[in-house]
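quick one, 96 residues, struct below
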Amino acid sequence: MARPTRSRWLAVAVSLVGLSVCVAGIVAFVLEVMQNTLPWSPSQSIRDHYLAVGQSYSEGFLSGFFLCLFLMLVAVVVTGVDRPQPQRERSRHQRS
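---
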Protein backbone atom coordinates (compact mmCIF):
# COMPACT_ATOMS: atom_id res chain seq x y z
CA MET A 1 0.00 0.00 0.00
CA ALA A 2 1.33 3.41 -0.96
CA ARG A 3 2.13 6.07 1.59
CA PRO A 4 -0.53 8.74 2.05
CA THR A 5 0.38 11.94 0.27
CA ARG A 6 0.27 15.41 1.74
CA SER A 7 -2.94 16.18 -0.13
CA ARG A 8 -4.64 13.13 1.42
CA TRP A 9 -3.62 14.23 4.91
CA LEU A 10 -4.91 17.73 4.14
CA ALA A 11 -8.22 16.32 2.89
CA VAL A 12 -8.61 14.22 6.04
CA ALA A 13 -7.78 17.21 8.25
CA VAL A 14 -10.29 19.44 6.46
CA SER A 15 -12.89 16.67 6.67
CA LEU A 16 -12.39 16.17 10.39
CA VAL A 17 -12.76 19.89 11.06
CA GLY A 18 -15.85 20.01 8.86
CA LEU A 19 -17.31 16.93 10.53
CA SER A 20 -16.85 18.42 14.00
CA VAL A 21 -18.54 21.68 12.96
CA CYS A 22 -21.43 19.78 11.37
CA VAL A 23 -21.92 17.51 14.36
CA ALA A 24 -21.93 20.55 16.65
CA GLY A 25 -24.55 22.21 14.43
CA ILE A 26 -26.75 19.11 14.38
CA VAL A 27 -26.48 18.65 18.14
CA ALA A 28 -27.40 22.31 18.68
CA PHE A 29 -30.40 21.95 16.35
CA VAL A 30 -31.62 18.74 18.01
CA LEU A 31 -31.27 20.30 21.47
CA GLU A 32 -33.15 23.36 20.28
CA VAL A 33 -36.03 21.17 19.10
CA MET A 34 -35.99 18.90 22.16
CA GLN A 35 -35.97 21.83 24.59
CA ASN A 36 -38.60 23.63 22.51
CA THR A 37 -36.51 26.77 22.23
CA LEU A 38 -37.23 27.45 18.59
CA PRO A 39 -37.46 31.20 17.99
CA TRP A 40 -40.82 32.53 19.15
CA SER A 41 -42.21 35.47 21.06
CA PRO A 42 -45.81 36.53 21.72
CA SER A 43 -45.30 39.74 19.75
CA GLN A 44 -44.45 37.81 16.54
CA SER A 45 -46.97 37.38 13.81
CA ILE A 46 -47.72 33.88 12.56
CA ARG A 47 -45.73 34.60 9.40
CA ASP A 48 -42.65 35.69 11.39
CA HIS A 49 -42.92 32.59 13.57
CA TYR A 50 -43.01 30.23 10.59
CA LEU A 51 -40.13 32.06 8.92
CA ALA A 52 -38.02 31.71 12.09
CA VAL A 53 -38.88 28.02 12.45
CA GLY A 54 -38.13 27.46 8.76
CA GLN A 55 -34.77 29.11 9.14
CA SER A 56 -33.93 26.87 12.10
CA TYR A 57 -34.87 23.75 10.16
CA SER A 58 -32.90 24.97 7.15
CA GLU A 59 -29.81 25.29 9.32
CA GLY A 60 -30.34 21.73 10.58
CA PHE A 61 -30.72 20.46 7.01
CA LEU A 62 -27.60 22.33 5.89
CA SER A 63 -25.58 20.81 8.73
CA GLY A 64 -26.80 17.34 7.78
CA PHE A 65 -25.97 17.89 4.12
CA PHE A 66 -22.41 18.97 4.84
CA LEU A 67 -22.02 16.13 7.35
CA CYS A 68 -22.74 13.69 4.50
CA LEU A 69 -20.39 15.58 2.20
CA PHE A 70 -17.47 15.42 4.63
CA LEU A 71 -18.17 11.74 5.39
CA MET A 72 -17.98 10.99 1.67
CA LEU A 73 -14.74 12.94 1.39
CA VAL A 74 -13.22 10.88 4.19
CA ALA A 75 -14.47 7.66 2.57
CA VAL A 76 -12.96 8.57 -0.80
CA VAL A 77 -9.62 9.54 0.73
CA VAL A 78 -9.39 6.49 3.00
CA THR A 79 -10.39 3.94 0.35
CA GLY A 80 -8.21 5.55 -2.30
CA VAL A 81 -10.81 5.54 -5.05
CA ASP A 82 -8.59 7.67 -7.29
CA ARG A 83 -5.72 5.14 -7.34
CA PRO A 84 -4.90 4.05 -10.88
CA GLN A 85 -5.28 0.35 -11.68
CA PRO A 86 -2.14 -1.58 -12.54
CA GLN A 87 -1.74 -2.40 -16.25
CA ARG A 88 -2.51 -6.11 -15.71
CA GLU A 89 -5.89 -5.39 -14.11
CA ARG A 90 -6.82 -2.88 -16.80
CA SER A 91 -6.16 -5.35 -19.58
CA ARG A 92 -8.04 -8.10 -17.69
CA HIS A 93 -11.12 -5.84 -17.33
CA GLN A 94 -10.99 -4.87 -21.00
CA ARG A 95 -11.02 -8.51 -22.16
CA SER A 96 -14.14 -9.46 -20.20
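The chain has a mean pLDDT of 85.
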